[in-house]
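Budget justification aside, the reviewers requested a transparent look at the raw inputs and outputs of the sequence design task funded under Objective 1. We therefore reproduce one unedited record. The lines immediately below are the structure tokens for a 135-residue chain.
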């Protein structure tokens, strides 16, 4: 039975094939080792272009082969859950929220923004611990 190819599996297998440790790959690609750990553990499902390019060069891969395995999440901004979540966060309920996309824990905060007249505007912010969902 053939295993489904994932971003984590591709990076891990290619790294081992070349003979690098995680730290060795991080040094070769000039990126932090925590980035490699997060990718190989499946926590990072999509990569910034700069990281993708550095990994591709270090692993002798085409960046498109890495990009093809990244997860692209389509967010539907019209979901009523998102508006309710924003209200809860603005009411300082910062813990215990789940991602509307994957159900994992959200890290929430209220950012203080300023408009052009220097009026303070609280803005709800949240990001998922597992998927690319951001508020």
């Amino acid at each position: 039975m053939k295993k489904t190819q994932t971003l984590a599996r591709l990076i891990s297998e290619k790294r081992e094939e070349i003979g690098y440790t995680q730290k060795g790959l991080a040094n070769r690609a000039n990126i932090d080792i925590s980035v490699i750990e997060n990718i190989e553990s499946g926590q990072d499902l999509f990569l910034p272009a700069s990281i993708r390019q550095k990994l591709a060069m270090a692993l002798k891969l085409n960046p498109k082969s890495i990009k093809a395995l990244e997860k692209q999440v389509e967010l539907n901004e019209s979901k009523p859950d998102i508006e309710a979540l924003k209200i809860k966060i603005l009411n300082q309920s910062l813990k215990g929220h789940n991602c509307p996309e994957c159900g994992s824990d959200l890290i929430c905060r209220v950012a203080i923004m300023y408009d052009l007249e220097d009026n303070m505007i609280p803005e709800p912010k949240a990001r998922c611990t597992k998927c690319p969902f951001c508020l």
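The chain has two domains: 7-67, 80-128. The first helix runs from residue 7 to 18. Computational costs for records of this kind are itemized in the attached budget.
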